[in-house]
Amino acid sequence: MTMLDQMRRHKGWLKWSLGLVVLAFIAIIPGVSMSPVTDPTLPSNVIARVGEHEISLLQFQQIYMQQLNNYRLQSGGDVSEEILRSLGIDRQILQQLIDEYAAITEAERLGFVVGDAEVRQRIVTLPQLQVDGQFIGDTAYYQLLQTQRPPISPTQFEEEIRQQIMLERLQTAITSWMTVTDEEIAEEHRRRNEKVKVNIVSFRGSEFRDQAEATDDDISLLFEEEKANYEVPEKRQLRFLLVDESEIFDSLTVTDDEIRQYYDTNISQYQTPGQIRASHILLRVADEDSDEDVAARAADLAAQARGGSDFAALAREHSDDEGTAVNGGDLGSLVRGRTVPELEAAAFAMSEGDISDPVKSAAGYHVIQVNEKQEEITQPFETVQTAIENLLKQERASSRSTALSRAIAAEVETLEDLEQAAAARGYELQESGFAARGEPILGLGMAPQVSAQAFSIEPNEVAGVDTPSGPAFITVIATEAPRDATLDEVRDRVREDVIRKKSLALALERANEAAEALQSAEDFIVAAEAAELAVGTSELVARGASFPQVGISSPVEAVAFAMEPGAVSDVIQAANSAAIVHLVEKEDASEDDLATNQDTLRNELLFSRQSQFFGAYMENVKERLDIDIDLEVLDQALNPV
Fold first, then answer.
1. Three-class DSSP labels, 84-111
2. In Å, what is the CA distance from 235 to each residue of 295, 383, 493?
3. What pLDDT digit, counting tens, does each position of 404-437 carry?
4. Do 122 and 70 touch, CB atoms closer than 8 A?
């Protein structure tokens, strides 16, 4: 495998892993409000300002498109921008940028400076930029930066490395005092690796449901005892304007010419790239070698292969590419754009079974053998025509609904404004019924964002919010205060709770009867079967595993790991079940494994501890910083009109 081919196996590392999420400590740290209020002090091309640092539209768009392309590559092109945005990726990217610049601002405040020499040293020692322990050289390095989508300039990449080093120093300064003791490591090793094997008998409350009866007196008593559990929460009634994207979608027409134009312009989306399976022999040009001598040696190897010598054997004996030589030079399957350009151009021009003349690249001279070749496949226009039509209609419906919602937002502050804006566009405001937080809303269905917004605004205040059906503008027109429920309102709930409690009580009673016999028995399984009780037996399992009959259960796990082999537990209540545990076997954590893994465990525990502390530290930092966000600019960046 050539140096650049090795590098392209790590396409994602450049922009994303060394830019935004350079440091695993910097997760999304709470403390910045993502309020949709426009800050008029921000320039129109700036999404956010963190202290003295600005996050530009261009910066955000580059990272956003990088992530979009990465997701599409991973999914074979099936992830649309709409799906990505529905996952909140746009807000996550913005939040990560804010987190990064907050940390940089704090590092600058503390006086950290990174020189050019340090940046250079970091770059030439990056594992991804080395082959056989050596830096790949500036030419290959610059070439690799240009293969990224979008391309990255050396200046840009080096500035990101500079920021990485600065943030590492900040983390070290804040967390280097933290330690993990040997005792803590031993305890964590025991907790992770200790195992138990158990027999379990369970008594599910649901099995006793038919024996449980809820009388009127039972219902009344439970209602009075636990009245607070049956409180009717605050409810709100909304008046709203919904810009329904599905209605816009149904009203749109796309011409055949437009569909064809999209198909022709985006033909790569409907193509399965041609690919080849190839092998190569790489001869590097060492300092003591002349270019001509290496080329001649490569030509001789090509002649031997064409003359009948086994190509794989030649590769194992002569190739300088240690990564592929052991496999007979096998490069695996290659597609266009994923390997060294010179090698790619030569290989894809060859036929199956061909052996190339020497091909020169930055890595040296290659002799290539094409073992298999699959031509590019393009889906016919007719098979994707309907899908393209729906895609274009959806994009236009989304664009129109966004443009319409922006126009309405610019006009609306009060309910009266909303009524006028709706009437001017032929819409009628709708009214919901009363709904509590998190309940379905009449006319909007399950809309968590709407529900959350409805309970955060004052009556007659208008707020814009996204819904599954499209943008909406809502206002609260009536409120019902929380109150005690009447028994008639919640009778069915109370009856169900009475039956559940009685069923569990019967299960516990039966379990206690069985426990006495099982604890005194010589053989747990024989005694259980004699009592016609089903026994579940586990394998040796560690903490966090699922137990037979009860599944993942913290109460059962805690008891099982505290027992000695042969012991039988008292009755354990686990959710709506009762269980009795017999410990069959206990396997202690290996002391040898502890010695082997001690450093790894120490690093993991220390990393976790430092991450939590650094996160809390950065939350305090962000509270001190001036952080301004303009989500309207963000929206315009993602939805250009």
1. HHHCCHHHHHHHHHHHHHHHHHHHHHCC
2. 81, 50, 19
3. 998 998 899 889 999 999 999 999 999 999 999 9
4. no
Q: Which residues pair with 360 in a beta bridge?
A: 365
The residue type of 281 is I
CA 630 to chain centroid, in Å, comes to 25
Omega prior to 150 cis, within 30 of 0: yes
For 569, the token pair is 């537990």
Query: pLDDT tens for residues 371-394?
Result: 998 888 888 999 999 999 999 998
Residues 441-496 have pLDDT tens digits of 999 988 888 999 999 998 889 999 988 888 999 999 999 999 999 999 999 999 99
Is pLDDT at 79 greater than 70 in this prediction? Answer: no
The answer to whether residues 5 and 596 touch, using CB atoms and an 8 Å cutoff, is no
Judged on CB neighbours under 10 Å (0-12, 13-18, 19+), 81 is middle
Per-residue burial over 528-560, b = 16 or more CB atoms within 10 Å of its CB, e = otherwise: beeeebebeebeebebeeebbbbeebeebbebb
**Torsion angle, alpha carbons of 121, 125, 126, 127, to 10:** 180
Q: Which two tokens stand for residue 622?
A: 């962000």
Tell me how far apart the alpha carbons of residues 124 and 105 are, in angstroms, rounded to a whole number.
Answer: 27
Closest CA to 203 of 579, 635, 516, 607: 579
Task: Give the span between the Cα atoms of 275 and 347, in whole angstroms.
Answer: 10
For the stretch 450-463, pLDDT in tens is 999 999 998 889 99
Q: What letters, b where the CB count within 10 A reaches 16 and e where it falls short, cover 403-429?
A: ebbbebbeebeebeebbebbeeeebeb
pLDDT above 60: residue 16: no
Residue 442 DSSP symbol: T
Residue appearing with tokens 């940089």: 104
Residues 160/18, Cβ–Cβ less than 8 Å: yes
Q: Which two tokens stand for residue 344?
A: 């790619």
Integer Cα distance of 575 and 50 in angstroms: 47
Query: From CA 169, how far away is CA 110, in angstroms rounded?
Result: 10
Q: Quote the crossing angle between the two packed helices 415-424 and 381-411, to the nearest 10°.
A: 140
